[in-house]
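Second opinion, please. Please look over this fold, written as tokens:

===
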Amino acid sequence: MMTDREQAAFEAGIKLGALYHQFVGTPISRETAGSVEAAIESAVALQPFVERIRVRLNRDLMAENVFGYTELSGLMFDVEIVTRVGEAACRAALRAEEGYPMMRVLGYP
């Protein structure tokens, strides 16, 4: 049997992994980035155990193609999520570290 703390960490990891794989490749531009951030936050917030989520996308990496957009890549994500199971919470993040989209547990607030 997992503790609430272990389950909260598991839930954070599952949410970040799903977010990453669901949205990478989405057509995006600097002009649409805000609405994509809001859509990701709204979609993930619907899931069980999500207490809060913040999504920011690195617009500096959005080099548009000849059609005026680019594709969302993992390196563009700067995401923080807090999941709660029972009395235990987990704060985790997805962000670029040394050229890699890294997911980490940041702590247990």
User: Anything to note?
Assistant: The CA atoms of residues 58 and 76 lie 5 Å apart. The mean pLDDT is 97.
